[in-house]
Design a protein that fits this description.
The complex is a heterodimer of chains A (110) and B (624). Chain A is mainly alpha-helical and 110 residues long. In chain A, 75% of the residues lie in helices and 0% in strands. In chain A, helix 1 runs antiparallel to helix 2. Chain B is built from 21 helices and two strands. Chain B has helices at residues 2-8, 14-23, 27-55, 66-100, 109-132, 144-149, 154-182, 195-226, 240-273, 281-294, 310-322, 324-338, 347-370, 372-378, 382-412, 418-444, 461-491, 530-536, 559-576, 582-603, 613-623, and strands at 551-553, 609-611. The chains are: A mainly alpha (110), B mainly alpha (624). Chains A and B meet through helix 3 of A and helix 8, helix 9 and helix 11 of B.
């Protein structure tokens, strides 16, 4: 029917820029992937090694938080442009959840 | 091609019309469906209110039984909040927000329809309790120990009905967020959005964060009552206070979900009928966002007397009072908008002017209750009843009535009678103050809320009688409004694009009602109050941002209706599973049916259709 299909041609400069950019992204994603595997290994090792639970639990939680951050920024593209509102909503939600939990563990008796 | 021809509008039989409404994904039609559904439940909740007031007319009355009275107050509260106020606001959001931002529909038209049907079937499920068993009787807050001890299926109807309706609300909220973020016309930056769009945006964000706690709480309640859970049963290691926390973590943002769109409606009305730019636009936006944030940090002020401890009470008291600051900013901005304006007292403006003193009175008693020591005196008394009716009726309901008059011409293409509108206003406004003003004093005299009847000789008789007479006046006001709607529809005098003559926002730049594709060309927005700018420059209509091209539109679908029907059936299964063996089969059948419909939706590609340039030109010419 009458709806037109738009074809956008890339110039050679654009093409090589896009290629370089995606190469760079791919490299960083692979590095982060390796790093995350490494962190997972540390977590398993910490549990296996039989350290005190007071040491293992915070370490595992900390590594988990770092992994969530890496996941969001390197694999779910939050580091790229146009994600400001997404970040605002996520951090807003986290702040509200944090304050709610904080209220429960500090000032509420029940 | 047939689809296009149908949507352009021609004579159709009853069956075809019904099918059209059942399958529609058009935001304007879904807005009208929300108004019809919400209006129906509003009348139902109003009848419940009248029965409550008739019972309290004289001391020692036995017009209704004590058990039935508990059902009445529970269903009045639940119906008015979840099934009347919210859907009516959703109706206006659906009908108006896409027009205000220059969009052709919401971001997810299919989900929009699904959200409506889930609200409607959830409400239907809840209200079938009147006929099938007994209605819920543990109050609209349904505090756990009481609601778990309640016999019969009443509370089950509450839990499952609200679960279905709540899921619909969550979908609608997410839909509006995505629509406002992604579908704004070129030039419509965030700080050029009309205030109604802004408040819809913030209210939708509140829905996104507040409804999941409700979902969880109701699931816990469902499991405790129907599947042998012990979340709230303290004899089995549960904690009954957790329900109160979860309910109010949802419940406090909920009241802002209601009042923020009301603020948006009045902001529009003030600037249109004072014929001035809204005073302090950016402060208004900031105040809206701030109220949204603070709304999540005050839930425990509903629980001061539970015994949270002095530290918690003090901190939540201060946080509560902080909300008065952004709200005060808004009140002063509205006053300064009218100040020096060229004011036209139309029906919507009358509601807006009546709203300011009414809402301020509700706000002042709110701050009083925010003082924890005083709250120990006021808690569970009629003072509380007076307070929340002052904010919800004096704020939200007045806004809904104002919006009905204000946007009626845009939605239906006819103008409600101004004379009858003003009669409605005065009956409703005087009735409202008569009903609730004296209830403050009844509370201070010691009358507890939710009582079935009261003894003679306590000095409560006169005030209760005046209160009931006020309620009758409010009912007369609503009846006049219904007569007005019927007469206006019967006369069917069509109006043009901008019937108030002072419209400032984009919705007034297009025909009333708008064609199904809204804007023949996507508009270009050149500032706040887009249409006002165009009129100042002598233009008729809006500046287009694109040439006339084919418009991509979504197809209607019956799948949302059937998806919800499956959940509706599953709800009965879950409930009757407790006492009948066939219940489980019905539960499984209902859920399977819903999943089948979801699978159908995923498998079947529906890419919508195109309205061609020729058809657009023909439609636009036909209007001139």
């Amino acid at each position: 029917m009458a709806h037109d299909i738009e074809i956008i041609e890339k110039t050679p400069a654009e093409y090589s820029y896009k290629k370089r950019r995606s190469d760079r992204l791919m490299r960083s994603q692979l590095m982060m992937f390796a790093l995350m595997i490494f962190m997972t290994l540390i977590s398993f090792a910490a549990v296996q090694a039989g350290f005190s639970a007071y040491f293992v639990v915070p370490v595992v939680l900390l590594l988990a938080a770092v992994q969530v951050g890496l996941q969001l920024y390197y694999f779910m593209h939050m580091s790229e442009k146009g994600h400001g509102l997404v970040a605002f909503f996520m951090y807003g939600g986290m702040l509200i959840a944090f304050l709610t939990v904080l209220a429960f563990v500090t000032i509420i008796w029940w | 091609m047939t689809t296009v021809a149908n949507s352009v509008g021609q004579k159709k039989g009853f069956g075809a019309t019904l099918w059209d409404w059942l399958t529609t994904v058009d935001h304007k039609k879904i807005g009208i469906l929300y108004l019809i559904g919400g209006g129906f439940f509003f009348v139902l909740g109003g009848i419940e209110a009248m029965l409550i007031r008739l019972q309290l007319l004289i001391p020692n009355n036995d017009f209704v039984s004590a058990g039935f009275f508990n059902e009445l107050i529970t269903m009045h509260g639940t119906t008015m909040i979840f099934l009347a106020a919210m859907p009516l606001l959703f109706g206006f959001m659906n009908a108006i927000v896409p027009l205000q931002i220059g969009a052709r529909d919401v971001a997810f038209p299919f989900i929009n329809s699904l959200g409506f049907w889930m609200f409607f079937f959830g409400g239907l499920f809840l209200n079938l309790s009147w006929f099938l068993d007994a209605a819920p009787d543990a109050g609209w807050t349904s505090y756990a120990s009481l609601s778990i001890a309640s016999t019969g299926h009443g509370i089950d109807f509450y839990a499952i009905g609200l679960q279905i309706a709540g899921a619909g609300t969550l979908m609608a909220g997410i839909n509006f967020l995505v629509t406002i973020i992604n579908m704004r016309a070129p030039g419509m930056t965030y700080m050029r959005m009309p205030l109604f769009t802004w408040t819809t945006f913030v209210a939708s964000a509140l829905i996104l964060f507040a409804f999941p706690p409700l979902t969880i709480g109701i699931f816990f309640l469902t499991f405790d009552r129907m599947f042998g859970g012990n979340f709230f049963d303290h004899t089995a290691g549960g904690n009954t206070i957790i329900w109160e926390h979860i309910f109010w973590i949802f419940g406090h943002p909920e009241v802002y979900i209601l009042i923020l769109p009301a603020f948006g409606i009045f902001s529009e009305i003030f600037s249109v009928f004072a014929r001035k730019r809204l005073f302090g636009y950016s402060a208004m936006v900031f105040a809206t966002v701030l109220i949204g944030f603070l709304g999540f940090m005050v839930w425990a002020h509903h629980m001061f007397t539970v015994g949270l401890g002095p530290t918690a009470n003090a901190i939540f008291a201060v946080a509560t009072m902080a909300i008065a600051v952004p709200t005060g900013v808004k009140i002063f901005n509205w006053l300064l908008t009218i100040w020096g304006g060229s004011i036209k007292i139309t029906t919507p403006m009358l509601y807006a002017l009546g709203f300011i003193p009414s809402f301020v009175m509700g706000g002042v008693t709110g701050v009083q209750q925010g003082a924890a020591p005083l709250d120990y005196q006021l808690h569970d008394s009629y003072f509380i009843v007076a307070h929340f009716h002052y904010v919800i009726v004096g704020g939200v309901v007045l806004a809904i009535l104002a919006a009905t008059h204000y946007w009626w011409p845009k939605m239906f293409g006819t103008m409600l009678s101004e004379k009858l509108g003003k009669i409605t206003f005065w009956f409703f406004f005087i009735g409202f103050h008569m009903t609730f003003f004296l209830q403050h004093f009844l509370g201070l005299m010691g009358m507890p809320r939710r009582v079935w009847t009261y003894m003679d000789g306590q000095g409560w008789n006169l005030f209760n009688m005046i209160s009931t007479i006020g309620a009758i006046l409010m009912a007369i006001g609503v009846i006049v409004l219904i007569i007005n709607i019927i007469m206006t529809t019967a006369k069917n005098v069509r109006v043009g694009n901008d019937p108030w003559e002072d419209g400032r926002t984009l919705e007034w730049a297009i025909p009333s009602p708008p064609p199904f594709y809204n804007f023949a060309q996507t508009p270009l927005v050149r500032g706040l109050d887009t249409y006002w700018i165009e009129k100042q420059e002598g233009h008729n209509g809006y500046t287009a941002a694109e040439p006339v091209t084919d418009i991509h539109m979504p197809n209607g679908s019956i799948i949302p209706f059937f998806m919800t029907l499956g959940l509706f059936i599953a709800g009965f299964g879950a409930m009757y599973r407790v006492d009948h063996s066939w219940g489980l089969a019905v539960l499984i059948f209902g859920l399977a049916f819903t999943f089948l419909m979801m699978a159908l939706r995923s498998i079947k590609d529906d890419l919508g259709y195109y309205v061609t340039k020729d058809q657009i030109r023909r439609t636009e010419r036909g209007r001139d």
